[in-house]
Amino acid sequence: MQLFNLLFIYLRTYLKTYIMGQILPGVVVAFENPKGGVGKSTLTALFAGYIHSQSNEEGGLSIAVVDIDDMQNTIGKLREDEAEDGIMKKEEEYEVINISSSEFINQLDFLQDNYDIILVDFPGNLKQNGVVETLHFVDVIIIPFEPNQTDLRPTLTFYYNIYEGIIESRRKIGKKDYHAWCYEPCSSECAGVQRNFEK
């Protein structure tokens, strides 16, 4: 919950920043690690629910969860199941949008114009068309993993071989990048959060 509080405060502050009298477009956020089973979809759904509950007051933040996992579509299926079972009412919850990863970039302007926060749920691999390209447009990335060799090796490979190049590409076009490492993401306190904010 501490991670969610810090991230929510940062996003709320970021979105209230004005440039030449205009509100910034929606910010794109993701819990991303191409290693499957590290809790990306779970953290995405929990954080979306947290933002939604904190933003129910008038003038709160609008949020959409964009599920680009073409094969599993975890959050989209979960939302459909909950609606069918009568557990929740779709119109009272945050928006869940299923978009193919190869189509995400084409829909980005629409998403940023209509939502303050766009949470992207990624697949558990980088092979799906459009996934690496989509990473270039994510403003805040939290990299969840369990502190064991099974998770650590692919996580570091992702960071050093893929993500560092994305950070550099974003800097060249004048975009900032913010990322955090999240050890033991499924623990109640998300133990050992280390923020690595790139300037």
Any descriptors?
199 residues, alpha/beta, seven-stranded mixed sheet, two-stranded antiparallel sheet, 6 helices, 40% helix, 20% strand, globular, disordered C terminus
Structure explained in plain terms:
This protein has 199 residues and is α/β, with parallel strands linked by helices. Helix content is 40%, strand content 20%. The chain contains 6 helices and 9 strands; from the N terminus they run αβββαβαβαβαβαββ. It has a 7-stranded mixed β-sheet, with helices on both faces. It has a two-stranded antiparallel sheet with strand order 1-2. Helix 6 links the parallel strand 7 (140-145) and strand 8. The longest helix has 24 residues, at 149-172. Residues 186-199 have low confidence and may be disordered.
Give the topology.
Blueprint (H helix, E strand, L loop, with lengths): L1 H14 L2 E2 L2 E2 L3 E5 L8 H15 L8 E5 L6 H11 L10 E4 L5 H11 L2 E5 L9 H5 L4 E6 L3 H24 L5 E6 L10 E4 L2
Parallel strand pairs: 3-6, 3-7, 4-5, 4-6, 7-8
Antiparallel strand pairs: 1-2, 8-9
The low-confidence runs, each spanning 5 or more residues with pLDDT under 50, are 186-199
Strand residue percentage: 15-25%
The rounded distance between the terminal residues' Cα atoms is: 25 Å
Q: How many DSSP helices?
A: 6
How many β-strand stretches?
9
Radius of gyration: 16 Å
Describe the strand arrangement of the main beta sheet, using strand numbers.
5-4-6-3-7-8-9
Kindly state the mean pLDDT as a whole number?
A: 77
Order of helices and strands: HEEEHEHEHEHEHEE
Based on secondary structure, the structural category is alpha/beta
Anisotropy-based shape: globular
State the share of residues found in helices, binned by percent. 40-55%
Largest sheet: 7 strands, mixed
